């Protein structure tokens, strides 16, 4: 048995380096102890590579491994190595076998880690601390898994202009306005408690607390009691719960306060929608002549997915490959979308995937067809199809990829980079969320920038689990 240990048990680069060396040396999973040498012995040397090139490892597996490694289960290194071994020893299609024990276990880990990340994003509360040269914001949080390095980019995006430190028992993250660094774990005593910000937050929370939506069990599930001690607003909960009924009665007596104006006009009643079932709509859309985009295009690219999907994902417009295949998101952006979904632990076949505009718009350039953005009239001409798809499917939530889809759902004032990655309640009772379009990630110039943006994209997509569970 070869003993191997890792300095940082949740780091993909380190695990991958050792796993690769073991694989090249032909050491089977049964002969590796990932617990390392322990107190009284070091690691064993991994034998030199046998003949042969390094086997190709699918990108999907690396994405999956990256999330699983953040899980607290000590078996994760061994299970991942067994999966890697199987993938490279005749079981290329392993990841597609959802019933396989290893695959199912890994997906459960991904779900739990993503949920933990979601909770951290929702429940971290920074407290203001005055220091010599200004203000620093400090937060204490106790996640269930080692997720700090994975969640920190989200807080960088959210609080770019602040200096902050995020303290957890396993590690800490620090942002100085320019650079993100990580340190070893902290203790609760390192984080300040109680200040004016907390009072502000309590006032804010009691004003947004909606008694008509009060479901104590769901609240405990969403905001588990273990997080309450770090939340200034939690001290208000018993009082708010007690007063919920009278407050709800008062709310019902008043006019609705939902800011309907903010949302796109087409979601209000009054638009004539094409009739018939979803498959009838698909047939009718083939003959659509509401704008001129149909003329040079190969075909209408209608949405695809279950007709009772809980989530409708809305992209922008089909590209070259979608136009030829007649299916949404099958080209390079679609492939990246699929990979990111897998990283977020979401099955694409649970989603209905469609576009704001259903025809490819392009400019011929020699033999190539260069993508052109559909203009406002073309987007408006296509709106009844999108509205009808949503009407027939009746999803619980909409997810918009890119600014065109986000503005179609939320209205022209929606600011994607500021408002992405959070659920909003629509006037029709659905939730909606927007994130970047996968083709934005493909266009980013630097690798580091692309990796950070990709991690943020996966993290936004993982919010869909709130609706799919
Ligand atoms: N981009 C989109 O917005 N939709 C597609 O279907 C493909 C690329």
What percentage of the residues does DSSP assign to strands (E)? 5-15%
- The tally of domains stands at 4
| Average pLDDT | 84
Task: Name the overall outline.
Answer: globular
**Spatial strand sequence of the major β-sheet:** 3-4-5-6-7
Task: Quickly name the level 1 CATH class of the largest domain.
Answer: Alpha Beta
Task: Quote the CATH topology of the largest domain.
Answer: Uracil-DNA Glycosylase, subunit E
The termini sit apart by 41 Å
Structural features, described:
This protein has 469 residues and is of the alpha/beta class. It folds into four domains: 2-119, no CATH class; 124-190, no CATH class; 205-253, no CATH class; 264-468, Uracil-DNA glycosylase-like domain (Uracil-DNA Glycosylase, subunit E), CATH 3.40.470.10. It has helices spanning 12-24, 59-68, 76-88, 101-123, 148-158, 196-208, 216-222, 225-228, 237-242, 244-253, 278-286, 320-325, 332-343, 376-393, 403-410, 416-419, 438-443, 447-461, 465-468; strands at 2-3, 32-33, 127-131, 134-140, 164-167, 171-175, 180-184, 311-315, 351-355, 362-365, 368-371, 397-401, 424-425, 431-435. A five-stranded mixed β-sheet has the order 3-4-5-6-7. Helix 2 (59-68) crosses helix 4 and helix 2 runs parallel beside helix 13 (332-343). The radius of gyration is 25 Å and the shape is globular. The two termini are 41 Å apart. Uracil binds at residues 315-319, 322, 328-329, 331, 333-334, 355, 439.
């Amino acid at each position: 048995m070869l003993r191997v240990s890792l300095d940082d048990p949740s780091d993909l680069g380190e695990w991958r380096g050792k796993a690769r060396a073991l694989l090249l040396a032909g050491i089977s999973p049964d002969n590796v102890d990932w617990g390392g040498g322990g107190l009284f012995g070091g690691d064993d040397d991994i034998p030199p590579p046998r003949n042969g090139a390094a086997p190709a490892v699918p990108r999907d597996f690396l994405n999956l491994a990256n999330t699983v490694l953040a899980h607290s289960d000590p078996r994760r290194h061994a299970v991942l190595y067994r999966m890697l071994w199987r993938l490279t020893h005749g079981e290329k299609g392993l990841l597609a076998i959802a019933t396989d024990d290893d695959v199912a276990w890994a997906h459960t880990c991904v779900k739990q880690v993503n949920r933990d990340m979601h909770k951290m994003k929702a429940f971290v509360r920074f407290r203001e601390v005055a220091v010599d040269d200004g203000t620093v914001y400090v937060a204490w949080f106790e996640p269930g898994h080692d997720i700090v390095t994975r969640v920190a980019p989200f807080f960088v995006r959210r609080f770019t202009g602040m200096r902050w430190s995020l303290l957890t028992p396993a590690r800490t993250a620090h942002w100085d306005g320019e650079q993100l660094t990580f340190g070893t774990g902290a203790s609760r005593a390192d984080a300040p408690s109680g200040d004016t910000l907390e009072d502000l937050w309590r006032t804010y929370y009691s004003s947004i607390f909606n008694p008509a939506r009060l479901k104590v069990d769901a609240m405990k599930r969403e905001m588990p009691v273990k997080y309450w001690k770090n939340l200034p607003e939690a001290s208000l909960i018993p009082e708010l719960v007690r007063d919920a009924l009278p407050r709800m009665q008062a709310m019902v007596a008043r006019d609705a306060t939902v800011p309907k104006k903010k949302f796109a006009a087409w979601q209000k009643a009054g638009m004539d929608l094409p009739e018939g079932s979803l498959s009838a709509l698909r047939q009718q859309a083939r003959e659509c002549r509401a704008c001129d985009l149909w003329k040079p295009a190969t075909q209408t690219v209608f949405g695809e997915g279950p007709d009772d999907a809980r989530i409708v994902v809305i992209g922008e417009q089909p590209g070259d490959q979608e136009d030829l295949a007649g299916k949404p998101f099958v080209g390079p952006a679609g492939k990246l979308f699929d990979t990111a979904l897998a990283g977020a632990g979401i099955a694409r076949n649970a989603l209905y995937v469609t576009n704001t505009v259903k025809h490819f718009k392009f400019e011929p350039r020699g033999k190539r067809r260069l993508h052109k953005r559909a203009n406002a009239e073309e987007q408006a001409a296509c709106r009844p199809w999108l509205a009808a798809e949503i009407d027939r499917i009746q999803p619980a939530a909409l997810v918009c990829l890119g600014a065109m889809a986000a503005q179609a759902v939320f209205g022209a004032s929606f600011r994607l980079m500021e408002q992405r990655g959070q659920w909003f309640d629509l006037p029709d009772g659905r939730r909606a969320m927007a994130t970047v379009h996968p083709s934005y990630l493909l266009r980013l110039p630097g690798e580091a920038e692309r990796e950070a943006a990709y991690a943020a994209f996966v993290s936004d997509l993982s919010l869909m689990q709130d609706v799919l569970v």
